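User: Before I run my own analysis I want an independent prediction to cross-check against. Here's the chain; please return only the structure tokens and, at the end, one sentence I can use as a sanity check.
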Amino acid sequence: MPKNIICYGEMLWDVFPKDKIPGGAPMNVALHLQHLGHHVAMFSAIGEDKMGKKLLAFVEKYGVKTDYIQRNKEYPTGTVLVDDSDKENIKYDIVKPSAWDYIAFEEKMIREVQLADCFIFGSLAVRNQTSKETLFRLLQKDVLKVLDINLRPPHYTPELLEQLLEKADILKINEEELTILADYLNLPSKVPAALEKLSESFDIDTICVTLGAKGAMLYTLEELVTHPGYPVTVKDSVGAGDAFLAGFVIKYLEKESPEIILDYACALGALVASLPGGTPEYKPEQIEQIRKNLET
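Assistant: Structure tokens:
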């Protein structure tokens, strides 16, 4: 049965020297969830410019609910300037200010949140006070809250991260981000102990740590489950983590076991990494084929 899911935050263009690609972690997650048959509303903002119109058309093509994508007359549609001249050290300039920095609170948002099965948010979208205030008003509602922490320096502070962690029911974080949090919060050096302390400190029952090509681990109050990941020939790693999160959320909402949740999420992330683009088209059968590859 399809779930109702909200993704809050940035939608933008990744601008490369020779091309530009629709992006933004919350938007990518929304598109994957919608593509897999769920009902997704995107809470964001774009500028009243050509890039905004193109981005909106791109999202509408997937069927994502766009009623809460605001049009801002004052600020432009978001862009990230990507310098990929050094493939081992790609540099990103997340242009500020952008329209998604100014997501204004609207009363109709409350109704949507109340009907949602899940609310997904990250740290980048609250670098500006306007979008931050809107998010924290919405997070007061009783809904499953998933924090995809998605650290992008210098767009966060330790204080902000603690405020976000205090709101989360589920945390998704990668190895590097966990190291940053461990330094800020004085967590133990061993990962299991660090996750236990993090869970206790912020009352987060479920923490998922992505490990890139090495798979992922899932900490719950009962256990720590690991998955080795699926080996694939990588064509484009952009969006793989967002696909992973989409797969994770789907199986979590379906109340599957930690093992199945991780397995499906790793398979979907691997599939997207094997295809060009952050939100490629694919069929459910392709996910199952990836999963069978490990069995054989």
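Sanity check: Residues 258-273 form the longest helix (16 residues).
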